[in-house]
């Protein structure tokens, strides 16, 4: 409470006290000027929502972003507000909020005293008390043309939001104070409003009057698609796209198991990535720290959903399904293939050597089976080689195959190797194959 004393000294002219004039309206500065966030993820789905909201705001309608918790409604609302490039006034819904918390209230009194001592023997004193009015954020936004972001407005009682009916429809804000001469504020042409809310089944959410919802355009904001969630986790953590994909798939699988009702949100995926970065664990089902982190972040949220029968073992199964890296057998096969590719020609696989030996023998047999250069038969056809010369074919082939199975190194015809208790001779080299088969 403040007091102002005005004294009139001896010889002062006596005059009537002027009527009490209401003090000038006290305004509040803008909360902030929103700027586009450098790490805000723009995907086709997010861009589509932004473009639609901007179109409705440009026409003059209020936009209402409605959806479950954790879908980025507030972040999207602030991003849309930054596109308008105007001062922004932010209000958060609260169960104890009243209409005066939005518009303003009488915050005190102003007392004015006048003492008249024109006649030395007479002292005249007059006191005037007036009510002081203070604007709140809605009044400031309406007067100065700010962008109003009313976050979780359904958490405020419907009676507190009744003041918005005339603001969104007639462009007039009623001022419930006797100290205001007009009793209302005309809404600035640049004033725009963006609302966010959770579904009515959430705890602490009030049912909104249909008259207010009819004055705004509601956009449903559901859980982001996989592409958007993957981009968000990659942008806001130091994880690789492969690791981010595993985390996102784990969260989305548990959400699908709960039929999309409640369940973990993108916040859970970001928390898993951030904690994994801090603890230096691997995004793998073989890492016990990572598995325990997923269980801690996902289990409690999942069990709070209605009709949810989720156990910690179920979450571990989901983690192992998505975060299991290459199986040991697969890894050994890959390493074997890599060693074969990098091995020198002398250590080629046995099957390749067998195939080469068979081709060589077949080529030799074909050459020996050509018609002889001797005289033609009676019917003019040159005779083929006698069958006795081809009898050695299966023997040579068996020898080459046995050689390939016994030894994986270059060989010559002078060494022997023991097989099944017997000492077998080395097969001849390819240069001598033709001579052996001809005998």
Written description of the protein model:
- Strand 11 and strand 12 (422-425) form a beta hairpin.
- This protein has helices spanning 44-59, 73-84, 99-103, 137-144, 158-161, 164-169, 210-213, 226-236, 241-257, 266-279, 288-303, 312-323, 328-342, 350-368, 393-406, 433-438; strands at 2-8, 62-66, 88-92, 104-116, 124-135, 147-151, 172-174, 184-186, 192-197, 216-220, 416-419, 422-425.
- It has 16 helices and twelve strands.
- The strands form four sheets. It has a five-stranded parallel sheet with strand order 3-6-9-2-10, with helices on both faces.
- The chain has 439 residues and is an alpha/beta fold.
- The chain has three domains: 22-100 and 138-220, P-loop containing nucleotide triphosphate hydrolases (Rossmann fold, 3-Layer(aba) Sandwich); 226-328, no CATH class; 347-370 and 384-438, no CATH class.
- Indicate the percent of residues in helices: 40-55%
Average pLDDT taken over every residue:
74
Structural class: alpha/beta
Number of helical segments with 4 or more residues: 16
* Elements, N to C (H/E): EHEHEHEEHEHHEEEHEHHHHHHHHEEH
Overall geometry = elongated
User: How many individual β-strands?
Assistant: 12
Gyration radius, in Å: 45 Å
Beta-strand content bin: 15-25%
Per the CATH scheme, the topology name of the largest domain is: Rossmann fold
The major pleated sheet works out as:
5 strands, parallel
Q: Provide the domain count.
A: 3
Top-tier CATH class of the largest domain: Alpha Beta
- Spans where pLDDT lies below 50 across 5 or more residues: 1-30, 327-350, 372-395, 406-422
Supply the CATH architecture of the largest domain.
Answer: 3-Layer(aba) Sandwich
CATH homologous superfamily of the largest domain - what is it?
Answer: P-loop containing nucleotide triphosphate hydrolases
Give me the side-by-side strand order of the main sheet: 3-6-9-2-10
Termini gap: 129 Å
């Amino acid at each position: 409470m403040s007091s102002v004393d005005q004294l009139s000294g001896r010889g002062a002219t006596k005059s009537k006290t002027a009527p009490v004039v209401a003090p000038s309206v006290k305004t509040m500065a803008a909360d902030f000027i929103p700027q586009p966030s450098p790490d805000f993820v723009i995907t086709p789905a997010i861009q589509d929502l932004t473009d639609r909201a901007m179109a409705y705001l440009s026409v003059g309608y209020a936009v209402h972003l409605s959806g479950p918790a954790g879908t980025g409604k507030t972040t999207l609302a602030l991003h849309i507000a930054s596109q308008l490039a105007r001062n922004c006034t932010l209000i958060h819904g609260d169960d104890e909020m009243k209409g005066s918390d939005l518009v303003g209230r009488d915050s005190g009194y102003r007392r004015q005293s006048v003492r008249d001592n024109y006649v030395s023997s007479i002292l005249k004193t007059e006191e005037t008390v007036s009510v002081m009015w203070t604007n709140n954020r809605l009044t400031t936004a309406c007067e100065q043309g700010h962008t109003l972001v009313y976050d979780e407005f359904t958490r405020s009682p419907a009676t507190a939001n009744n003041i918005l009916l005339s603001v969104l429809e007639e462009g007039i804000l009623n001022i419930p104070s006797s100290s205001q001469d007009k009793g209302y504020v005309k809404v600035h042409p640049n004033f725009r409003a963006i609302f966010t809310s959770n579904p009515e089944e959430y705890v602490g959410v009030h049912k909104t009057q249909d008259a207010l919802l009819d004055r705004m355009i509601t956009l449903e904001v559901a859980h982001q698609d996989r592409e958007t969630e993957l981009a968000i986790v990659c942008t806001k953590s130091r994880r690789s796209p492969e690791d981010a994909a595993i985390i996102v798939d784990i969260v989305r699988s548990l959400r699908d198991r709960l039929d999309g009702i409640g369940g973990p949100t993108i916040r859970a995926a970001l928390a898993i990535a951030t904690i994994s970065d801090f603890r230096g664990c691997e995004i793998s089902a073989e890492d016990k720290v990572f598995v325990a982190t997923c269980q801690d972040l996902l289990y409690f949220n999942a069990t709070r959903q209605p009709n949810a029968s989720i156990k910690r073992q179920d979450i571990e199964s989901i983690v192992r399904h998505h975060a299991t890296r290459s199986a040991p057998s697969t890894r050994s096969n890959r390493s074997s293939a890599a060693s074969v590719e990098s091995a020198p020609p002398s250590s080629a696989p046995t099957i390749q050597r067998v195939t080469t030996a068979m081709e060589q023998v077949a080529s030799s047999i074909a050459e020996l089976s050509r018609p002889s250069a001797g005289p033609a038969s009676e019917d003019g056809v040159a005779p083929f080689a006698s069958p006795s010369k081809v009898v050695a074919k299966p023997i040579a082939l068996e020898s080459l195959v046995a050689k390939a199975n016994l030894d994986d190194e270059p060989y010559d015809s002078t060494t022997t190797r023991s097989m099944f208790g017997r000492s077998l001779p080395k097969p001849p080299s390819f240069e001598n194959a033709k001579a052996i088969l001809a005998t």
